[in-house]
Amino acid sequence: DEATGAFEAYDYTRALERTEAFFWSFCDDYIELVKTRAYAGGAAAESASRTLRLALDVLLRLFAPVLPFATEEVWSWWRPGSVHSQSWPDAQVLRDVGGEGGDPALLTVAGEVLSQIRKEKSTNKVSMRAEVDRVEVRAVPERAARVRQAEADLRGAGVAACFEVVEVADAAAEGVDVTLAAAAIKGAQQA
Fold first, then answer.
1. What pTM was estimated for this model as a whole?
2. Strand 132-139 with 177-180, pairing
3. Interatomic CA distance for residues 135 and 158, integer angstroms
4. Are 142 and 182 in contact (CB under 8 A)?
5. What confidence tier does 78 reach under pLDDT thresholds 50, 70, 90?
6. b/e map of 136-149 (b: 16 or more CB within 10 Å)?
């Protein structure tokens, strides 16, 4: 919606900025979260693959006005015709594809957890792909419910053997708090 509004107002810089912000968030969070699921096979993998294809389709159309040659090349790898003859993506159509049960805040909360897992691993100088014994996430009930929905993907992205979600009653808590067990970090450092 924001990129479309900016583009229609001839604010190409803002349209590009919003598209790039989505692109990097999508790559940093969504792709990392579903990577394990996408390679696992089955219905869950098909769901992840469909979403990845849809996102690539939309991103290529959003980037096409400012990256004409690169988008045309990538489009040709998997789609007939030219990306430049395609219609601009319609946000309402994308919302309809997602269905009524979609929760836009789910990716935001899962991204926060993934970011904190990465930070903990980085602070402790272990590889992002190093397996850890246990990840504990503390969050208020609403956020904890979202973390539980994304638990399988978070476990895969964080390479965690055990993933625990603890609800806290602190109404002042705005985010999520992630802890990697000390034993998990030590074991990861030895790996």
1. 0.79
2. antiparallel
3. 8
4. no
5. very high
6. bbbbbeebbebbee
